[in-house]
Amino acid sequence: RRPAARMAALEADEAGAALDHVITQFNSYDDYLDSQITTQDLFYLENEEMARQLVELGFRGSGEVLKREEFEARKAAAEASRLSERTQQKTLSSAGKELKDNFLKALAEREEANRSGKMASIIFIRDRNSRGQEVSAYIDYAHRLKVDEFEIYFNGKKKLFPRRTDLSFYNWDRNVTTSNASPNYQVIAENACGLLFKNKCDRKIVNVDPKAYPGDSTTRTPIETDLYLHVVIYDHILRRKT
Question: What distance in Å separates the CA atoms of residue 79 and residue 108, rounded to the nearest whole number?
Answer without folding.
Answer: 27
